[in-house]
């Protein structure tokens, strides 16, 4: 797994073999999300719209949106509301304004109740309109509003009077008449420029005449994130963290998986690989106590990152593998020599393989072997954290049996050093693998692909032997 790419089959294997743990962690995440929603009370958001008459550029609308949430507007709204326990700075964090289509500024306020949210947004809209009118110099006095119109009429009357005076002057006969006509034209131009400036000022005043488009609607639902959203987010977060944690753990896994790596770490030769039928509960660690029961309940007492067991042959084919291991061991050592079969604790597959190997060694030589009896074997289990091998006595050597992908290189080196300290030379290494046994056939119905006994002895499933 440490050298493989993450594929969908890996994710599927995690979901299939760790479904209990993932379900529990997802439930814990949902409870954490619920607890978060209890700590943070629900919030409600209301919005009020302000219409800006006239033609406005996009940048000007954005500027007005910034003014709507400025401290000058928010502080005046806070003073008018007079809420206790809510500071001006906290109120600024609860308001927002956006420029919508159609020259509309949408002002939103968030509070702990729908009534407060509605009051906050309405007050912000009113204070914004008042502040904008104050900036533009708007005045609601009727006399002040009638002043520009009266001035415009006076300017028109003056322009007509200038025309009459220019027509009445002696056109071009004297120097004085020419100068009078020139002065009158200058006065006309000055009055026209003054009227243009007056029209521009009136346009700005009309733009500043913002209108609040009715009171804000009272919110009927909570503002995000709601309680349901927090619960779903917590469950999803814990589920993803659990899956990512499994992938990271598999990436940094340093357990040896190939026979060559295992033999090199132990400093000995590989005697062969043997098959152990996978029988579900029989391959689970035999732990005791509350922690072991919890691990079995969550389904974490077995590894998830090992491939599914391959299909095995029949019982006769599996026994041939054990006999071949005994034959190789017999060829390497004298028959009178007794050996220890060292098996790491917690490796149930290796324990079953060691027991079967010892049983085959006690059954006598294989018909294919021309040598004598196989050396006597005694199975001993050792702790990997503090390996301790019995001292050399009746047995003078060791055979290490373990399953692939169960131990790291450092752990195997520790086992080899423990054997050397006890005076035992490692005679060989046997790697055990779990396989799926074929279903038993009904009596009297031989398989169509059944082969003669010699062919069975020459062919066995599951790698080298």
From TrEMBL:
Residues 441-465 are annotated as: Disordered. Belongs to the CpsC/CapA family. It holds the Pfam family Wzz. It comes from Streptosporangium nondiastaticum. Residues 4-65 form the Polysaccharide chain length determinant N-terminal domain. The chain crosses the membrane at residues 21-40, 228-249. The keyword Secreted does not apply. GO terms for cellular component: plasma membrane. It is found in: Cell membrane. This is Polysaccharide biosynthesis protein. Keywords: Cell membrane, Coiled coil, Membrane, Transmembrane, Transmembrane helix. InterPro entries: Bact_polysacc_biosynth/exp, LPS_length_determ_N. The keyword Glycoprotein does not apply. PANTHER family: CAPSULAR EXOPOLYSACCHARIDE FAMILY, TYROSINE-PROTEIN KINASE. Residues 441-453 have a biased composition (Low complexity).
């Amino acid at each position: 797994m440490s050298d493989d790419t993450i594929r969908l089959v890996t994710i599927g294997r995690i979901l299939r073999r760790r479904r209990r743990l993932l379900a529990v962690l997802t439930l814990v995440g949902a409870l954490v999300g619920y607890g978060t929603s209890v700590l943070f009370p629900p919030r409600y958001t209301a919005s009020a719209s302000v219409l800006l008459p006239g033609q406005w550029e996009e940048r000007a609308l954005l500027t007005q949106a910034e003014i709507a949430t400025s401290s000058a507007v928010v502080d005046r709204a806070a003073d008018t509301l007079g809420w206790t326990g809510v500071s001006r700075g906290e109120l600024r964090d609860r308001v927002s304004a956006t420029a919508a289509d159609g020259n509309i500024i949408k002002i939103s306020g968030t509070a702990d109740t729908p009534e407060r949210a509605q009051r906050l947004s309405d007050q912000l809209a009113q204070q914004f309109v008042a502040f904008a009118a104050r900036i533009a110099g708007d005045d609601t006095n009727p006399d002040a509003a009638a002043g520009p119109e009266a001035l415009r009429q006076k300017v028109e009357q003056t322009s007509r009077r200038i025309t009459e005076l220019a027509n009445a002057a002696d056109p071009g006969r004297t120097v004085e008449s020419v100068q009078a006509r020139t002065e009158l034209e200058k006065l006309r131009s000055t009055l026209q420029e003054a009227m243009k400036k007056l029209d521009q000022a009136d346009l700005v005043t009309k733009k500043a005449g913002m209108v609040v488009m009715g009171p804000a609607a009272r919110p009927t639902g909570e503002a995000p994130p709601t309680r349901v959203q927090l619960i779903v987010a917590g469950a999803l977060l814990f589920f993803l963290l659990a899956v990512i944690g499994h992938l990271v753990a598999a990436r940094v896994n340093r357990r040896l998986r190939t026979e060559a790596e295992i033999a090199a770490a132990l400093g000995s030769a590989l005697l062969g690989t043997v098959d152990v039928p996978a029988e579900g509960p029989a391959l689970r660690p035999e732990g005791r106590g509350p922690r072991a029961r919890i691990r079995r309940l969550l389904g974490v007492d077995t590894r998830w990152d090992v491939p599914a067991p391959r299909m095995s042959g029949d019982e006769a084919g599996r026994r041939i593998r054990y006999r071949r291991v005994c034959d190789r061991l017999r060829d390497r050592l004298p028959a009178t020599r007794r050996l220890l079969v060292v098996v790491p604790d917690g490796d149930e597959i290796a324990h079953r393989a060691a027991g079967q190997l010892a049983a085959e060694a006690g059954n006598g030589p294989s018909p294919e072997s021309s040598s004598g009896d196989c050396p006597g074997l005694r199975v001993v289990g050792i702790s990997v954290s503090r390996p301790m091998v019995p001292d050399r006595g009746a047995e003078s050597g060791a055979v290490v049996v373990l399953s692939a992908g169960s131990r790291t290189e450092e752990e195997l080196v520790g086992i080899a050093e423990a054997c050397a300290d006890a005076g035992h030379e490692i005679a060989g290494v046997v790697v055990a693998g779990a396989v799926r046994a074929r279903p038993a056939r009904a009596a009297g119905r031989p398989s169509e692909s059944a082969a003669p006994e010699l062919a069975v002895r020459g062919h066995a499933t599951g790698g080298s032997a």
